[in-house]
Amino acid sequence: MTTPDDVKKAPAKDPWDLPDVSGLVVGVLGGTGDQGRGLAYRLAKAGQKVIIGSRAAERARTAAEELGLGVEGADNAECARRSDVVIVAVPWDGHAKTLESLRADLVGKLVIDCVNPLGFDKQGAYAIKPEEGSAAQQAAALLPESRVTAAFHHLSAVLLSDPEIAEIDTDVMVLGEKRADTDIVQALAGRIPGMRGVFAGRLRNAHQVEALVANLISVNRRYKAHAGLRVTDV
């Protein structure tokens, strides 16, 4: 008779044993904006093949030429089709419309949403909570045949784009439904010197991660800084 004590448990997977992602093509929708452009630059500098996407292909190609490092430019649809992993870095007010228009092009793709729904008034930045709960959850609802994750929310575009800065000293909170997908995103973050991807839960927890950017904006304004995050004891 077999008892529970006779069954050997599989050893727990090392959470830092991440896949090799060096051969993946990364597309950046909104790659001509500050955040998208900075991410494209850092990933390309780390050796990743990167395609910048924009509504206007010519604008994307111009931005790619300025970055160099083998970066290519294309319209959003072509960028999505040619990429293995697609980072969504478009403005919040165009988030839903952009993803709706690219639903077919993003089928089967790993999508990383880094959009922060924010509003601004005389008191500064404040978080907006979308009907779906977060930008990432909105993306998941609009892209039912894609693998949606969330990451890269708290990065300074100024630091990302500065060629004089060798390392970006920060952690990246990574959220998603499947470990295989979040492991890929963590590995991509880890390709950028100084950066580390840390799993932070499922997409239902994305709102507070997106909302924290409003607090970082307040930190930056008070201290004239480009603040990021570090998670301790992991």
From TrEMBL:
Q: Which domain of life is it from?
A: Bacteria
User: InterPro entries from the xrefs?
Assistant: NAD(P)-bd_dom_sf (IPR036291), NpdG (IPR010185), P5C_Rdtase_cat_N (IPR028939), STEAP_metalloreductase (IPR051267)
Sorted keywords for this record are: Oxidoreductase
> Can you say what this protein is called?
Pyrroline-5-carboxylate reductase catalytic N-terminal domain-containing protein
Q: Where is the Pyrroline-5-carboxylate reductase catalytic N-terminal domain?
A: 26-117
From the UniProt record, which GO molecular function terms apply?
A: coenzyme F420 binding; cupric reductase (NADH) activity; ferric-chelate reductase (NADPH) activity; NADP binding; oxidoreductase activity, acting on NAD(P)H
Q: Could you give a single Gene Ontology term from the biological process aspect?
A: NADPH regeneration
Assigned GO CC terms? plasma membrane
Q: Where are the transmembrane segments?
A: none
